[in-house]
Design a protein that fits this description.
Blueprint lengths: L12 H14 L4 H18 L2 H17 L3 H18 L2 H17 L3 H18 L2 H17 L3 H18 L2 H17 L3 H18 L2 H17 L3 H18 L2 H17 L5 H10 L7 H17 L3 H42 L12 H12 L4 H16 L9 H18 L3 E8 L2 H8 L1 H18 L5 E6 L2 E7 L3 H12 L3 E3 L2 E3 L3 E8 L6 H17 L5 E6 L4 E5 L1
Parallel strand pairs: 6-7
Antiparallel strand pairs: 1-3, 1-6, 2-3, 4-5, 7-8
Length: 563
């Protein structure tokens, strides 16, 4: 069907351009209207064989679907826009299509694809000396650094993007980069600075009338206010963000705004917090936004837990963990693809070096990227070693090499989830050295640290390989054991710890007290099990130390039986 104006006359190329200008203006305020206008122009451009108009209409349609969180359709449209722009030899639309593809892949969690498109975008805008394109490259590379947990690099890129936007005197671009800087600072736990940037981002976005940018800035401002304990103002800004994202049809942004509103209401003790957080999960159904789904489920789980509903909290945590495992697996693959893309770019640049000798000095971004690529020329084995080192630092105790508290709590939560399905009971043991402070006071902390290493080794030797062992802090240790022969293993641990030891030439005699709790008899969640084991351990100390006590929770009260 031929696209026509209201007077039924066929559209001219000038009319197509005018319609696309109108669609562009509607993108961030009424994306569905923008899509319909661009689709009308697309049909006319196809009939008139207007290649640039066809490419531009597809790019605007892709952007409209992006703002509506319809990422797969947005990607297909952006790919069509790119191929059409290349056929029409329209380098301006080609740059915009490459930028759109990078943003879409980033939103889908496809970091490898995002890196490939953004590197192509960077090469093209550098060759064109396109400063607006340079801004988008800086901003997008900052987003990628953020996803790769390179937070300082992300902040630096976004700060450079803000400076470039100020030089261009483009308030809309300033609003985008300032919003991203506020988010970087929140991730860096610099909440007061984040609050200032989020306020500025809201002011800039209001000036431009860009509802997409305004919605994101308002939600970020609510987040920083929540972190600073100002729940009242947080809920005010979050409500406005909810209204805007709902009007735009942006389900991902709507979920984030709803989560910020729910968290603020929860902080105020408002009963409406729970249905708001439940809605933040529901709106993400049938979307590819797994990262947002993980956060939404986790926030809802925290709300259920704070309101005394552990069963529902556990269901939401289970959903969050499952999505997080899927997302982690995908992100590892995508990060490898991102590294591979950088290396492939370097190879292509080397082959084409003789063709680039006539160019002027590469931009600062290209130089920095080339240096980054050279540093990343490592094998996959090197990447795996680095991943292992990071895991070691985050999950193990630096002194003893055992798991640390956070890793133990996570593994205990996973064991609870597994036991819900298998109905298999298990025990946790809370162990504390008796009078360890006197060792430090008498022989010094160096001897005390060496003693803790020996204690950790003796515990590991006394327990089966299936046991999970952690050092929580100081002289406190915790273990997860199967619910068979657990008493024999605990007795073995206490016996071996009761043996004298030579530490740096000093004869040291120690003992330990332990408390046991059992799933599900002693509790159904992490806090209950750890509390009962801790309580039983202190009962053991009161009964004379060097022994263990088993906690039992009855239907009426907490009871303990000594052994």
């Amino acid at each position: 069907m031929t696209a026509r104006h209201q007077d039924s006359k066929p559209m001219t190329k000038a009319a197509i351009a005018s319609a696309l200008d109108a669609a562009q203006q509607q993108l961030t305020g009424a994306p569905e209207t923008a899509f319909e206008l661009a689709d009308l122009a697309r049909a006319a451009a196809v009939e008139l064989q207007d290649g640039p108009g066809h490419a531009r209409s597809l790019r605007i349609m892709a952007s409209a679907r992006f703002y509506q969180s319809e990422m797969l359709e947005a990607k297909s449209l952006a790919e069509l826009a790119l191929s059409t722009a290349q056929q029409a030899q329209d380098s301006f639309i080609e740059v915009e299509a490459l930028n759109s593809l990078g943003a879409i892949c980033y939103r889908l969690g496809d970091f490898g694809g995002a890196m490939e498109w953004r590197l192509l975008h960077l090469d093209l805008v550098t060759a064109q000396r396109n400063r607006v394109g340079m801004f988008h490259s800086l901003n997008n590379l900052g987003n990628l650094h953020g996803e790769l947990d390179e937070l300082e690099e992300a902040y630096a890129k976004h700060h450079a993007a803000v400076q470039l936007a100020e030089e261009l005197q483009d308030v809309a671009l300033q609003a985008i980069a300032t919003t991203n800087m506020g988010e970087d600072l929140m991730h860096l736990k610099r909440h007061q600075e984040a609050h200032l940037y989020n306020q500025k981002a809201v002011e800039l976005s209001r000036t431009t009338g860009n509802l997409v940018a305004l919605g994101a800035a308002l939600a970020n401002l609510a987040c920083s206010l929540h972190a600073l304990g100002d729940f009242q103002d947080a809920q005010v800004y979050a409500r406005e963000a909810v209204e805007i994202s709902d009007r735009l049809g942006d389900r991902v942004g709507h979920s984030y705004a709803l989560e910020m509103l729910g968290r603020a209401l929860l902080g105020l003790g408002d009963d409406s917090a729970l249905p708001v957080l439940e809605e933040s999960v529901r709106v993400l159904e049938n979307t590819e936004a797994k990262s947002r789904q993980v956060d939404a489920h986790a926030a809802l789980a925290a709300a259920y837990e704070s309101l005394g509903d552990p069963a529902r909290a556990l269901t939401q945590l289970q959903a969050s963990y499952r999505l997080e495992r899927i997302l982690h697996s995908q992100q590892v693959d995508q990060k490898v693809r991102a590294v591979t893309a950088r290396l492939e770019l370097q190879r292509l640049r080397d082959e084409a070096a003789h063709e680039r000798q006539e160019r002027e000095t590469l931009s600062a971004i290209n130089t920095e990227l080339a240096l980054a690529v050279s540093k990343l020329e490592q094998t996959n084995d090197a990447l795996e070693r680095l991943t292992g080192q990071l895991w070691q630092q985050a999950n193990t105790d630096a002194l003893t090499g055992l798991l640390n508290r956070s890793a133990f709590v996570r593994m205990l939560g996973e064991r609870i989830l597994a036991s819900i399905d298998t109905k298999a009971p298990f025990c946790i043991v809370f162990l504390d050295l008796d009078d360890f402070k006197s060792v430090n006071d008498r022989f010094g902390h160096a001897v005390g640290d060496r003693l803790l290493i020996i204690v950790a080794d003796r515990i590991q030797q006394a327990l089966p390989q299936t046991a999970t062992i952690a050092r929580l802090s100081g002289d406190e240790f915790m273990m997860i054991l199967e619910s068979h022969d657990e008493l024999r293993y605990v007795e073995a641990v206490l016996y071996t710890l009761n043996q004298p030891v030579e530490v740096s030439g000093h004869h040291v005699q120690i003992s330990a007290s332990a408390g046991l709790s059992e799933y599900p008899n002693s509790g159904l969640d992490i806090d209950s099990l750890m509390f009962q084991a801790d309580h039983a351990m202190y009962q053991a100390k009161q009964l004379g130390k060097g022994r263990f006590q088993k906690a039992v929770v009855s239907t009426s009260d907490t009871d303990s039986n000594g052994f």
